[in-house]
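Box 4.2: Ligand-aware structure prediction
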Amino acid sequence: MTTLIEPESIHEIRDIAQTEQQIALFLDFDGTLVEIAPSPEDVKLDRRVAPALETLRLKLGGALALVSGRPIAFLDEMLTPYQFDIAGLHGAQIRMGGALRAQSDAPDSLHEALRELVRFANSHVGIIVEDKRISVALHWRLAPTLKDEALDLMRRTAAKMGPGVRLQEGKSVAEIVPANASKGGAIAWLMATPTYAARLPVFIGDDITDEDGFKTVNAMGGLSVRIGADRESRAMHRLASPTALHRILLEAAENGHLSAASFTQG
Ligand SMILES: O=P(O)(O)OC[C@H]1O[C@H](O[C@H]2O[C@H](CO)[C@@H](O)[C@H](O)[C@H]2O)[C@H](O)[C@@H](O)[C@@H]1O
């Protein structure tokens, strides 16, 4: 397993890893719990992971949430029969303790934008439009040479939609999301609730959208962990792959012990 630690963060990580404070665990989904796949519907979750997460959720007094760009309904399907706390659509939806606590409205001009994006996809092989009802993603993983054209279209579309939305770039994807939604905001919201408060936040993610979550947990004195070492990141620590993370989660579920140190050793 490759483990890279930025030199300036070593002390901080050592301090965090030695604390006995109970953690609140926040997990991204794509690229973190599952490997990146050619298209959004191709992802496969190792069947051991959902039961392990349920064991850990109970161990953490409920303080475990998924923080993802996916809709809650999709993640429920992937993790069935378990229902976790979830901040979906990059923070535009939050479900906690089995109840929907926050959900942004779909931007007014989303339908029109969607029509334009579908038109583009229909005339460009390999482009995928993912309609998430409150947000929309345009994927070019299967047509990498169309990246500039697709990104330009998304920039122009988002600009036309106005200040109610923002553009979220990711791995071979750009998404139009409600302007007030962010992963950092969702983590901060959850950390203000009794289940999560007073715990040390640990957030694990892999993509540009997760940088906002890393910033939030760093500011709270928590631990940020990035899956992959392919670019600069605010994350304090790195794990090589979803498989490396699975190993930690499965072992922790087995032995009943999970702390910040679990993610920084090995
Ligand atoms: O916040 P996440 O849970 O990481 O979700 C971010 C986006 O992930 C998905 O797209 C990415 O994964 C796909 C499947 O591996 C891949 O084909 C695509 O290229 C990636 O960008 C998902 O489709 C989006 O809705 C999420 O927002």
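In the box above, the bound molecule is L263DTV3. The domain at 110-178 is CATH 3.30.70.1020 (Alpha-Beta Plaits).
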